[in-house]
Amino acid sequence: MTQNSAAVDKKETVTLTDNSTGRTFELPLISGTVGPKVMDVRSFYGDTGYFTYDPGFTSTGSCESKITYIDGDEGVLLHRGYAIDDLAEHADFMEVSYLLLKGELPTSEQKKKFESDITRHTMVHEQINNFYRGFRRDAHPMAIMCGVVGALSAFYHDSLDIRDPHQRMIASYRLIAKIPTIAAWAYKYSIGQPFVYPKNELSYAENFLHMMFAVPCEEYKVNPVLASAMDKILILHADHEQNASTSTVRLAGSSGANPFACIAAGIASLWGPAHGGANEAVLNMLEQIGSKERIPEFIKRAKDKSDPFRLMGFGHRVYKNYDPRAKVMQRTCHEVLDELGVRDEPLLELAMELERIALEDPYFVEKKLYPNVDFYSGIIFRAMGIPTSMFTVLFAVARTVGWIAQWSEMIEDPAQKIGRPRQLYTGYTHRKFVPLHARG
Ligand code: SDX
């Protein structure tokens, strides 16, 4: 299937009739390569005097993109046309990063050059070291990520001009390369161990695990099975269309903010438990449930509108079928636990029983609530010795390349303009000011 730019099919329009005035409006329908057509409402306010209204953007396309396509009903996820299952099975994270950024899978030559470029940006300015000491040791590592990534713009002045394609590329490579170093150091800082520097002979995933778990006093050998599992998990989290954090990055970038600030904004948005923070919330939930006998009690709570409890790791704005990433994640979970010789991990047993019960429950079936990417990832991370507070950090490490690819696409889009939504105002109309002495 080839890709093309949006086809404004002049013949196809939607006619709207304003029954209060009898006016009719023709809205052009734009077709993409695949997926729902869009009604072009860019001139809607000018033509009608009305705003469209879509809090949460459940029916709104915010941009044109060629990077990722999701068919939520079929449970399909494509990156530049390649299925996530194929990429997770046959490619590695560097290949997928190249694909997301440049639109094609790399040749061996291109991959070698890309890996070498990324590897040579994995160190951070030595003064960045000092930022960590400003945090309490028990600071949530996502707080450190927001702070340190945002501060990168204070160090890399030669890659801040977003109008210069070369500077955009350098900033992109720096962010992809340095995010694992910054993340691993957030973990080391929290446990009072010295920072471990990247090693150029290691792969991206190996380097991350090495910086997380090596100590200066002895040689640390990265387990190849765990490195391969980590690489696969990075692929599964790399990009996902216009999710909340990607939309945050695009909106921040639309004002011309520098890429480091935009990625820091994406990290902040990802932190929420409804989004990337769900993997941490799943583990906390499983530990709260504690035993299979208590599952019905929590299923009941998840269905109770008066109870804020939600089944974390379940449901998705787009997927109304099984999240294809969750399937790969479940398989990887078994591989990692087998490799580590972890037999009947109670949390995995509990998660699988919870999934079985939920998928048979009419409430979840009717609302099409399935496990999403966050449901199993935490169990793998925990088995790898990664603390719960670092789970969303790992999500941010992987998603940085997706955020950067989407940010670059937006900057290069000639139709791009600053994002500035309007509103439905229901507050006071103008009223006379009452001076303090007259307010009783
Ligand atoms: C990620 O957007 C992305 O692509 C995100 C992501 C990515 O890669 O970037 O895929 C990563 O964020 C995955 C999602 C992780 N979040 C969670 O697992 C948290 C638990 N899930 C829910 O909070 C919820 O499902 C959302 C936030 C994921 C989606 O919420 P929506 O689309 O706004 O749906 P909704 O809240 O309107 O729910 C629809 C109905 C509601 O019931 P009604 O009001 O219609 O009666 O389903 C119910 C909800 O109450 N529902 C749940 C539920 N999720 C939705 N009920 C119980 N448990 C849940 N988990």
Provide a brief overview of the structure.
By secondary structure, the chain is mainly α. The protein has helices spanning 44-48, 84-90, 93-102, 108-119, 129-133, 141-151, 165-190, 204-213, 224-236, 244-254, 259-270, 278-289, 295-303, 324-339, 346-360, 362-366, 374-383, 391-412, and strands at 7-18, 23-31, 38-39, 68-71, 76-79, 82-83.
Q: Which terms summarize this structure?
A:
single chain; mainly alpha; binds s-citryldethia Coenzyme A
| Rg from Cα | 24 Å
The tally of strands reads: 6
What is the average of the pLDDT values? 95
Strand order of the largest sheet: 1-2-3
Number of helical runs? 18
Bound molecules: s-citryldethia Coenzyme A
Helix content: 40-55%
Shape: globular
Main sheet specs: 3 strands, antiparallel
Euclidean distance between termini CA atoms: 71 Å
What is the H/E string? EEEHEEEHHHHHHHHHHHHHHHHH
Instruction: Name the beta content range.
Output: 5-15%
Query: Structural class per helix/strand content?
Result: mainly alpha
Low-confidence stretches: none
